[in-house]
Amino acid sequence: xxxxxxxxxLHSHLPYCRKAGVWPFGEEWVLEAMAETxxxxxxxxxxxxxxxxxxxxxxxxTPVLLDQLQDPxxxxxxEEYLETKIAAAEADIARFEAESEGRLRDLARFYRDRYESVxxxxxxxxxxxxxxxxxxxxxxxxxxxxxGAATHAYLPLLARESSVYAQVRIGVDTYERCxxxxxxxxxxxxxxxxxxxxxxxxxxSAFAAAGIDGVLATMGIRHFFVDSHAIxxxxxxxxxxxxxxxxxxxxxxxxxxxxxxxxLPYSVEGSGLLVLGRNERTALQVWSSExxxxxxxxxxxxxxxxxxxxxxxxxxTSRLVDLASKEIYQPEAALAKAxxxxxxxxxxxxxxxGEFHADTGKHGVIVAPFDVELFGHWWMEGxxxxxxxxxxxxxxxxVELATAAGYxxxxxxxxxxxxxxxxxxxxxxxxxxxNEATSWxxxxxxxxxxxxxxxxxxxxxxxxxxxxxxxxxxxxxxxLLRQAAREALLLQSSxxxxxxxxxxxxxxxxxxxxxxxxxxxxLLYALERADAMAEIERYxxxxxxxxxxxxxxxxxxxxxxxxxASRR
Length: 568
Hints:
about 575 residues; alpha/beta; 7-stranded beta/alpha barrel; immunoglobulin/albumin-binding domain-like; about 45% helix; globular
């Protein structure tokens, strides 16, 4: 008898990298994810479905990522990327053969075969259409695809309700264009939630803010996800604390909330939207730097590369040894460990749901959200682990695999909840996006928000609220306004402050941020000029060719909304 349900939520986001650098920062972020995560994940799901396994997964692909996965230029670059990787592996095979390095030669063959398999799947199995493959799986009832904010903006710190509305509206429009239906659920960027009338923004400033769930409700969204402490209180574990522990701020302690648990869904007071909370125990089992699965010594070491080809030929070995002491990777041992860890995870889920049922008599749910790039990219064996977990839970007599929408359809909310402002970032708040290193970015973002709102309202005659041009020719004024809206969205991407805070690509992120700001300002300036049209049109064409995202964007989404408030 089923005692509870398990909901995998695999969320994927990458910033807009098209024609914005290649390596180490830029297009290769997307190309790597396509080869190492998205196609292997599709292979796993498709194989299980073909084998009669009742797969149920919830998957989120952000709108800005969806557009890149369908872009002809990026698809051409992916073909080049695979050819380059296969050629590099062939060269390594010859090099290691000449050096009598048999184990390294075999690993080079392993990589060659892996990339050739990805290429075959991309062409023969999915017809070169990754987004279409996900759509087919949803239409077959195997996965639920949830919507996302247009450019993964960190919504709690946006100053204008119009910006939140535009991020969600354009995200929903992109979802409909890609998947042919309206979304039921949404993944809030970084699980960032802000209730009505909360305080948000950089230190020393305040904003009268509309609740994010109120905006979601206007779009017909039914459910979303938050971190565990937003539901049950306590000290946040956070998503990034283990990776950046040395910078961990004092966590926002939220008083314990007796009676509330992430094992049950709730209805949010005021909006009626349904909310599911991340299960902390299963999350830590995977993410913990101390005892999470990916840190096992048998798995491939992510941070050590061959100096010639860049392939990773070593295993973790131990958390306590430096890169120079890493041992040669053994794929068979790694896969055996992944199967062992998958069996352990299935037993953990069964035990936790069994204990909750025994204590309460209720059918509980474990919601397990992960960044999908963990599987295959960061943790190479993670895709195989996922395959075996899905197989194991599908066979379980006590656990029901479900999508978020499927679970909520059959299990009503346990009651109402008044959610607190929260995220799954360090300390459970906004620190990783808003701190002394990034406060200047928020000043610029808020300025652009006000300008975009003002411009969209003053030039409303160029658009209609319904999302279509009011007829007539596609004038340069319309094109300028649409491109300014794109630049405003790209500026708001949460990636830029995140990369500055974590120092992973701080210079690149700052440069990209300023590029979008400068393009936005120049486009607005051009809207106000009646002369130099040839120069303006030439510049506009250049930017349209670079930042070619959201082809059906409607700037009217940025018009003022009830509840907006200026910075004070």
